Amino acid sequence: MDPASKSPFTLFPRSGKKLFTTLKTPGAGVQGMWANKTRVFVVCGGMLYEIFEDTSSHAAGPIAVGGNPATMRANGLQLLVCSAGNVYLYNGVSLFRPIISYATGTVNVNGNAVSWVSGALFQGAGGDVLPGDLFMIGTTLYNVIAVTDATDLVLDKDAGMIEDVAYQAGTEYLTGVMPEFIDDYFIVSQPNTKQFRLSALGDGSTWDELDFADKSGSIDNIGAIQEVNGQLALIGDTSQTEVWGDSGNADFPFTRVSGRNINAGTSAPWSVAKLADGSICSLLSTLRGEDQIVHSAGGAPVRISDHGIENAMRSYPLVYDAIGSTYLEGGHSIYRIDFPTANRTWEWDQTAGGVWSEMGPETPEDEVYGADPGTFRVHVTWPSGTRMDLVAGFASGKIWQVSPDFDQDDGVDIPVMRISPHINSNLEMQNIKCFALDCELGTIDPANLGLDGKPLIPTVNLATSSDGARTWVDAGAASLGRSGEYEGTFLTPDEITDMTQNSQTNPQVFDPKPVWYSLGAFWISKTFKIKSTARQLKAIYNALIELGPS
């Protein structure tokens, strides 16, 4: 908000999308996306993919999916994926499920016969390793069918011939809801418990059975985990958040940080997302109830949702499936929250002082927005140096490129609608002499053609309401100016006479510039609504109204 600018706020349409690639998974949508500087990974239709700059993709392997997002973290060499309560590790070659291990070491392998070399001994039939246990050699998992003695055992299938290879023994697969990565440790929260687990230092394939701890400051379970300024926030599923930090302890490095408890949790674990400045947004949960969207910069959460957002959430059939994400665009730091069951999307602009916008395609029958399909968003700089933002959603395997330079979604116009605050008459009858929209004129791309093949004459529509925005009266359309027409479109007498010359607009009849006169009288309040599309209405600066006694 530059005080020297034309207006304190400028309203722009949301960014448009162009199809980048489609993952060929019939009938399946994207469950999650993650990117580092140069690589992009996507979970779609029960498969982990890596996608590339040339729009091709590589299927790394199958992954179980559920109704919640798949989430990912990486350490530079390994990608850890949590999906449907399962944990997977991709090392660039193999995708596999880690186990919780009680013994590690190295062995020699000859077919299905295994001989101990170093580390923990097998210790015979009555020792640590028992028939039926899981036995991982490298990244391949086997079952133990017999333990001959402390140094020899038999597997359920041929493992080839390998010498001095790493092994792990365990009784169960690692499970997890959400991953994090702090100080070279992978961390996962355990489903429906207070517990979280740590990997070995720098290695997401090894998870010792003793490397776990419990959230202990309150009765609620862990709803979500989040790295905050190098520390681990254990966000409760109902009432309390506690913070843990790396103390350097050799046995278990993370300890609870005294005095950092926050009396709030999250009612929607997937709504938690970190902004560019390291602060957190989420859907708040407390023992007192009431769904609010909050922002926390390390201390107590601050309410950022307003009464309008909260009333909207109250009408949704379900809010606990909300999914949060963040991104940067045009210098603005944005928190986005999707409500999949309610089919709604909202965005909060931190940089613009906390402005909320509802996003998505327009639903014609009730003039509201459906959910925007870009639930998951990543930024990548491809090896060529090309920078790109990609988005995807649950509805399909499509991956779109998103940019403020695009004014359509795959060739479909993006709706733009702005409803004004109610104007109060102080119980005096007032006459609306004039409504003028201060907006961008004459900037439409001349390549945008109307139905008659001529350059499109962009228009904006005004409607008014006298009953609190319950019903609307159409006030007509006005021109936003063809390319270079910075004061609106003034038709020649011939163009006015021959309506076919003007057929590229809808409606065909419009005022030459966005000014409407003699809009009638009102007594208590009046509300105004502007509608257009992103191709036509590039920016709104202000609106001016001239009133007079009736």
Description:
This protein is mainly beta and 550 residues long. Among the domains are: 19-69 and 375-406, no CATH class; 100-171, Elongation Factor Tu (Ef-tu), domain 3, CATH 2.40.30; 415-549, Jelly Rolls (Sandwich), CATH 2.60.120. 3% of the residues lie in helices and 47% in strands. A 6-stranded antiparallel β-barrel has the order 10-11-14-13-12-15. Strands 25, 26, 27, 28 and 29 form a 5-stranded antiparallel β-sheet that branches. Strand 17 (185-189) and strand 18 form a beta hairpin.
List descriptors.
Elongation Factor Tu (Ef-tu), domain 3; five-stranded antiparallel beta sheet; Jelly Rolls; six-stranded antiparallel beta barrel; elongated; single chain; mainly beta
CATH topology of the domain at 415-549: Jelly Rolls
Tally of strands: 49
Strand arrangement across the biggest beta sheet: 10-11-14-13-12-15
Largest β-sheet summary: 6 strands, antiparallel, barrel
Number of helices: 2
Rg value: 29 Å
Structural class: mainly beta
Helix share bin: under 10%
CATH class of the domain at 415-549: Mainly Beta
Mean pLDDT: 88
Shape: elongated
Question: Which segments are poorly predicted (pLDDT under 50) over 5 or more consecutive residues?
Answer: 499-507
Strand content: over 45%
Tell me the distance between the termini.
Answer: 37 Å
Q: What is the second-level CATH architecture of the domain at 415-549?
A: Sandwich
Summarize the entry for a quick read.
3% of the residues lie in helices and 47% in strands. It is mainly β and 550 residues long. Among the domains are: 19-69 and 375-406, no CATH class; 100-171, Beta Barrel (Elongation Factor Tu (Ef-tu), domain 3), CATH 2.40.30; 415-549, Jelly Rolls, CATH 2.60.120.
